[in-house]
TrEMBL record:
Signal peptide start and end residues: 1-21
Annotated Pfam families: Redoxin
One Gene Ontology CC term in the entry: cell envelope
Descriptive protein name: TlpA family protein disulfide reductase
Length: 166
């Protein structure tokens, strides 16, 4: 019995650490989920990722109503200015397309824009383990995830990741 307890503890630690491990690719569910384009059509997330292949990509998941997202905008603009060769993809969790489009215009967001069809608790959000916005995901030129979970306080980590990919 004395030998079993340390083994069970070690197993529990390994199980917990694996659940928060850095992901290097999106789930099939995430890739198959469609997002709304500004033109009103639907586009599969896999096609959004494929469209950016060959470029380093920063994906920001945000919403026009999100105070932390708005507070992070100046840092995002600094990131874009320091990394003009990087592609930026914005995925909104807004509930209404008019609010989403107004937010893009108001904050002068430069990049490709999409909106989740079912917001924060929907299929896409669950498929990318969304628990907070703004959320940043960085992809390398092959489409591999190199930074899966960054938030508005992680711009140093995002910058370091982008610098390492140059």
């Amino acid at each position: 019995m004395k030998k079993i307890i340390p083994i069970l503890i070690a197993f529990a630690i390994c199980s917990c650490s694996n659940s928060s491990a850095q992901k290097t690719k999106f789930t099939k569910k995430a890739l198959e989920t469609t997002l709304l384009t500004p033109e009103g059509s639907q586009m599969a997330f896999k096609d959004i990722v494929k469209k950016a292949e060959g470029k380093t990509v920063v994906i920001e998941v945000w919403a026009s109503w999100c105070g932390d997202c708005v507070k992070a905008m100046p840092k995002l603009k600094e990131l874009q200015a320091a990394n003009p060769d990087v592609s930026y993809v914005f995925i909104s969790m807004d509930k209404a397309a008019d609010k989403w489009k107004a937010g893009i215009e108001k904050h002068e967001l430069k990049g490709d824009h999409y909106m989740a069809n079912d917001q924060m608790k929907g299929v896409f959000a669950k498929a990318i383990d969304l628990d907070w916005i703004p959320r940043y995901i960085v992809l390398d030129k092959t489409g591999k995830i190199v930074l899966y979970r960054a938030i508005e306080t992680d711009f140093d980590k995002i910058n370091a990741t982008l610098a390492a990919l140059k």
